[in-house]
Amino acid sequence: MTPTQEPPTQKSGTALATLRELPQNVWNSIFRNPLPSTDLERSSTSFTNFFLHIHPVKVNKNTLRPTYTMGLGLIATFLFVILVVTGVLLMFYYVPSTTQAYDRMLDLRGTVAFGIFLRNMHRWSAHGMVAIVFLHMCRVYFTGAYKRPREFNWVLGVLLLLVTLFLSFTGYLLPWDQLAFWAITVGTSIAGYAPLVGKQMQFVLLGDTTVGQEALLRFYVLHVAVLPAVLVLMMAIHFWRIRKDGGLSRPEVAAAPAPDAGVVKLKKVYGLQGFVRGPFTKLGNVPDNSVYSWPNLLMAELFVFVLTISLILVVSLLFNAPLEQPVNIMHPPNPAKAPWYFLGLQEMVSYSAFWGGIGIPGLMVAMLFAVPYIDRTTHGVGKWFAKERLLANTIFLTLVILNVIFIAIGTFFRGPNWTLVSPF
Amino acid sequence: MRLPLAIASLVVLIVHGVVFRNQFFHEWERHQTAYIEQARSMSKNDHERAELEARAPRIEQIIVTSFGDTHVDRCTTCHLAADDPRFGGHAEPLKSHPYSAAMGDVQRNGQWERRHKFSDFGCTVCHDGQGRGLDTFYSHGQDEFWPDPLTGYVTQPNWRKDFSPKLKGKEYMEANCAQCHTEEAFAGTPHVERGRKLFYAMNCYGCHKIDGMSEGTLGPDLTEAGKKFKVDYLWESIVEPRANLATSFMPDFHLQPADVESLVIFLKSRRGVNFAETSLDRYKAHVANVAVVIPPGTAGEKAGEQLLGDRACTACHKLGDKDGGIAPDLSYEGLIRDEQWVGDHFVNPRSRVPDSIMPAFRFPAEDFQRLTAYLESLKTPPPPVDAHATFVNLCARCHGEKGDGAGKVAWYIDPSPRDFTKPGFMASKPRARFVASIQEGVGGTSMPPWKRILKDEQIDGVLDYVMQTFAKEQFKELKTRNIPEKNPVASNPESIARGEQVFELRCNGCHGRKADGKGPNSLDIFPHPRNFRNHWFVESVPDRRLFESIEYGVQGTAMPSWMDMLNTNEVGDVINFIRSLQSGRK
């Protein structure tokens, strides 16, 4: 069905004609533009659709290079969407009560339609999101994309990483099994090592001196209401800033514009990018290497979305989310391990409680926040592992590898009493 | 880009297809169709046949409101023929539930009538399993996380392979019968009854509490054992107490499988408040039980020896060739302890050995007298052998074959047996002290006096053996230490108060705020710090030794020298404080 470009303007006269035109009119009232076939229509489609207007009308070709962004930010976003949908469905069954929570897990396994599958999707998406957000941060760093004018968006990104970790951590407790209970016990004990406010923080978080009903309720509220709201708000600002900072980072192009089929002539009348102020959108001064969002960017997004969801679906079909015996305070597992993304911390805590749990992680987060304000150079942007950024990249890569090593040791090489064991 | 997109989309479609197929095509529909067909062909009644013909598969459920929280049993969705006597000879799931007079079912006019109607009882009240489940794996409780799999029919895949076959059998359902039929000796629950008797006969009640039955505090409370634990865990805990908790000191009672089974069934029936009683009933039973000193089933015991066997004393103690490996050797008790000591110890073990872990059993007084009389009759000393053999026979059980204080019962004994391999200790104490310890024993500890078992030359021989084999350093004549024989500070309230202040400042960390040897550091220290509330010990030690230990420290232990920190008067105050703890106690 191809909608007509112009809605019929001549008076229809009869009631029959009104009826005949009803579907068309409804359609046109919702979608103001026909499926675009010209550049004007492409611009207009992006601009007038609520869901599409988050996109710029045109994007730089560099933005669409899969090897540049790897779609990591998009994947993280889509995982969050999956998490919200599955999470809301799971909320219909879950009761945040120490006596009922575990029974509800068993109900999900045995009696609720799609129960296991929903839980699997939620669990694996959550783990995936933590990993992908971290990788996204690495990508932004290694391409130097945090540099002026994107400093604040980097700070927002670090905050988003922290909120993601906290979301995953709060969700970890909800099944109320041995895994959950002891992981949260370990995790909140690490928080308790913070100087001055550590114990108070732990108490506020748990509502008690140990993990119990109060902690479960608090974690639940944080997990389903507070943190998602915070995350959505910050994501909105994060996305908005991408636009306001002039799109994704890309290498500066000094050479004269190469004549290209897709390049639009200057002095166009509908160059909406012209309204967007910012150092990176100097219309006319730089080669216009951009293409229309519709369909280029949308196709890329669709591609990432379908890939993400198909991967999550397959993983959820093949692997069941872990569940252990119900909470038994008398029988701590040996070793009791925190969630995997905190195992690096736990490993460091095993050397020094303060430095491993608070000191070094605190310093690392502070360094992450400070990065764009310390590194004020503007070269090497938009290129993976740019030569000009050798020192910065080496420092960051070392820290990333150290973190991964610590997590790997904590996950695979630590046995009873936190002694070194071989996983093989 | 289009090809991977197409492939990914296909994957999404396929996964959706699989998931939806799993959700909407059910095994139970096949069973229902089979039932409807067969019942229709069996039916001799036109009306019923028409009804069956019109029937489409649907979820069947029984809502059970009378037994605990309201719950839903959908078992009859597959087991549609459970109440249809025509299906008696069919295979599961289309088999009718058997009728049995023992269960109270009655036959009227050739028609059986159930005592336990499914419409009232549902299925899971007796059988367990996940009532709401519609999938065999989950509804039968084969999922390893489901707390109660079909009792007696299903064992979960993660259960111990060596005994999980023993966890099958209809007798396990008696644990559920006992939720309503709580009366003792109820004909339908012989295993529960046998387990209850074993709970008393094997002395389980000495350590474990079951509300309304026993008040033991050493082991875990078993009042809700049936609710908290699966039969697999219960069985394992009985036959291998240390499998779950490495530090457990529960003995292995070497029970026959039939006895273990009865105990497991009995424990599985303990679920706190059951269907038949209110929490007020439970409280009344608790109050009544505290008042009753005599456990049931004590009649008929003849002599102490018989009693000792029945009460499973050798589950912990050694007697002759039986050795529980937890508590001291009783083989020569008549030569070691007098009647007064044994009698007092029975009534309250901690009145003689303050850190003993032995429970105070609530046997009738005459049983204690019989047991005491029997133990006092054990007056035959072992035949004299060489020093090495004597050490192995009599000392190694506590002090260890290597003399390192780590004998097999050492773990359960507080104060710990002396480690002879610490030369610092062994070389700093005069021989006379060791001889005295062997001859007279050490008060308030598990070290008994050996003077009536070993002759003086045997004691000398064993001591030489220990010194040469383990200590490896001969006693060194010490430089004269400046130690007063008697405490020079007179004991008065002021001195005691000063001593308490010093004690709080200097000694708390190890010896504890209560001076009971259980300070925060004590757990990591071997031998453990002394318990100064152990008046048998403290009163057996002269001032001189207390002075020496404080001023010069105790070599080979964690006790440091306080000579530079405390002057003689302060040490005297501390000793007065320690001595003051003993007065007012017997």
Structure, described:
The complex is a heterodimer of chains A (about 425) and B (about 575). Chain A is mainly α and about 425 residues long. Chain A has 14 helices and two strands, in the order ααβααααααααβαααα. Chain A has helices at about 15-30, 40-50, 65-70, 70-90, 100-110, 115-140, 150-175, 180-190, 200-205, 215-245, 295-320, 345-350, 355-375, 390-410, and strands at about 60, 290. Chain A has a two-stranded antiparallel ribbon with strand order 1-2. In chain A, α12 crosses α13. Mean pLDDT of chain A is about 85; it is low at about 255-260 and about 280. Chain B is mostly helical and about 575 residues long. Helices cover about 40% and strands about 5% of the residues of chain B. Chain B has helices spanning about 1-25, 25-40, 45-55, 120, 125, 135-140, 175, 190-200, 205, 225-230, 230-240, 255-270, 280-290, 305-310, 335, 340-345, 365-375, 385-400, 425, 430-440, 455-470, 495-505, 510, 535-540, 545-550, 570-580; strands spanning about 60-65, 70-75, 105-110, 110-115, 210, 215, 320, 320-325. The interface of A and B includes residues 107, 111, 117, 299 and 310 of A.
What strand line-up does the widest sheet of chain B have? Answer: 1-2
Q: In the CATH hierarchy, what is the class of the largest domain in chain B?
A: Mainly Alpha
Named at the architecture level, the CATH assignment of the largest domain in chain B is Orthogonal Bundle
Unreliable stretches of chain A, pLDDT < 50, 5 or more residues? Answer: 255-259, 278-282
Provide the number of structural domains of chain A.
1
Number of separate strands of chain B? 8
The CATH topology of the largest domain in chain B corresponds to: Cytochrome Bc1 Complex, Chain D, domain 2
What is the CATH superfamily label of the largest domain in chain B?
Cytochrome c-like domain
Number of helical segments of chain A? 14
